[in-house]
Amino acid sequence: VLGTLAGLGLARQRGAWAATLKLVMISPMIVPVILIAVASYFFLAPVNMTNTYTGMILAHTVIAVPFVVIPVLTALELADPNLARAAAACGATPATTFFRVTLPSIRPAMASGALFAFAASFDDVVIALLLAGAGQRTLPQEMFSGLRDSMTPAMLAVATLMIALSTLLFVGLQRAQRNMKRALAQPH
Fold this sequence. Notes:
Layout: H1 2-11, H2 16-30, H3 33-44, H4 53-78, H5 81-89, H6 94-123, H7 126-131, H8 139-149, H9 153-185
Helix pairs in contact: 1-4, 2-4, 3-4, 4-6, 5-6, 6-9
């Protein structure tokens, strides 16, 4: 939701401030994750949020949002602006135009962004190692700890399930995008 809102806001802006804001929004993709984890720790430690779920959610949101912003921005830039103008000319309110014109055109980008954001957040073990408390154990953190000790059949089974789930999600997303393109191409 935050990535989509940021993409919508950035798509309408022009100028130096907009370019700077875009750079700031995508910087977590460029900056090494260890630097983001350390910065998150130093930001969250003074407010006692390092061993909390809220702190983990905030840190993972920082690394996940750019993966949604980029595809949504791209979809908005590729969308035909005449469709929104035509809807307004036909008497549609801005909310109706958004929900009936803009949102359907960016929905595939939102879905792919959400999938990439989930994968980036799920894969990140460095932030979990720095910010998680004793009672907070993520699956990648457990797998990382297990790699240091020994390779067990349970870890291999989890890795296989993760690969299968990722493949199913990717295939499902591709199928949904194909169906969406077919639906948009059919005359109404």
